[in-house]
Specification:
Number of strands: 11
Number of helices: 14
Strand content: 5-15%
Shape: globular
Structural class: alpha/beta
Radius of gyration: 23 Å
Strand order of the largest sheet: 3-6-7-8
Helix content: 25-40%
Oligomer: single chain
Length: about 350
């Protein structure tokens, strides 16, 4: 959108195409957010069509590359997407932490102000705002930005989640005044993240604050598949259930040069204890986690575990369970416990 604003100011017509096809133009730009196989296939197709004429950027290609300052300073062109539902942008860039699974410190550096507050990306009169900040509460003057949200009565979606470690008695009452929303701006919701068992205590000591946001108001994005064991995952799930927080389970997507670091053994507790868990909301995400467990279990032991696949297929696509049950290595609960 910033590229569009810049080149329109120079007199160019700008169009967006989500299809990989030939278009006649003076210049071509593409962006790759993730380094997935599907993205790489599209990049190959683009190269076959345009050769070196297409300029491909984005984190999926090169985390060190940035827009030139004169383009970065442009107001985003929302008309490129015919988009009016919410404004989209950063107030800050960077993060003071250095989590192994995250590219933000290498890509964006230290936490600092990115724009002249909301005027850098919010059109006049727009009230819905989706923020892309990676660690907003960690910013030294976060209170000023939060107060501005309150004064302007913005509806705010903290899409990249907030860091529970920075939630204190100073920022908490300001956050309570903010009309924080889900990504569709249809209901109140505030987002935090819990990516490692070591952060459980941060939630426990702030449980009264979390409760203060309201019933089903707090959603926690919980990553799995990077460096935690089954018992570590289980400890997180139990804590989230105990505090009544809405859980969103997110599988780790590998970034360049950083593969998953699952411990040996990953399955360090009774699997039945995990299978018995249920969640009131986000059942599809829980099912995705169970599917991931199923794949990892087979990769680890060369066998399937029948109670696990029965749990996965208890509601959806029930007939698909037959291909597992016919597998010669599928273990019943009795056989499984004889292996423990």
């Amino acid at each position: 959108m910033k590229l569009s604003t810049y080149y329109k100011a120079l007199g160019f017509n700008v169009m967006l195409s989500k299809e990989v096809r030939y278009l006649k133009a003076h210049q071509y730009f593409a962006s790759a957010i993730f380094s997935t196989s599907s993205t790489m296939k599209k990049i190959v197709k683009l190269r076959n069509i345009y050769g070196d004429e297409v300029d491909i950027g984005g984190t999926g290609m090169d985390i060190s590359r940035k827009l030139p300052p004169e383009i970065e300073a442009c107001f985003p062109d929302y008309s490129l997407y015919d988009h009016t539902h919410y404004a989209l942008g950063f107030l800050t860039r960077g993060c003071p932490k250095k989590c192994d699974f995250c590219i933000v410190p290498a890509k964006e550096g230290k936490l600092e102000m990115q724009t002249e507050s909301f005027s850098g990306f919010v059109p006049p009169g727009w009230q819905n705002i989706m923020l892309l900040d990676n660690n907003l509460l960690g910013y030294a003057n976060a209170h000023e930005l939060l107060e501005e949200m309150v004064v302007n009565e913005y509806k705010v979606n903290f899409s990249q989640t907030l860091d529970i470690a920075y939630l204190d008695q100073y920022l908490y009452p300001i956050l309570l005044k903010i009309n924080s929303q889900n990504s569709r701006f249809t209901r109140k919701r505030i987002y935090f993240s819990l990516n490692h068992p070591g952060s459980i205590r941060q939630f426990e000591i702030r449980k009264s604050m979390l409760k203060g946001f309201g019933k089903d108001m707090v959603s926690v994005v919980a990553m799995y598949g990077f460096d935690t064991s089954l018992s570590g995952d289980y400890a997180r799930w139990m804590m989230l259930r105990r505090l009544g927080l809405v859980t969103f389970f997110q599988e780790y997507w590998p970034i360049g040069g950083v593969a998953a670091q699952l411990p040996e053994p990953y399955f360090d507790m009774d699997l039945d204890e995990v299978i018995r868990l249920t969640f009131r909301s986000n059942g599809i995400n829980w099912e995705k986690y169970l599917r991931w467990l199923n794949r990892l279990y087979f990769k680890t032991f060369g066998r399937y575990y029948q109670p696990l696949i029965e749990t996965i297929y208890r509601y959806n696509n029930k007939t698909a369970i037959q291909r597992y049950l016919k597998h010669p290595g599928t273990l019943t609960s009795e056989l499984y416990h004889s292996y423990l």
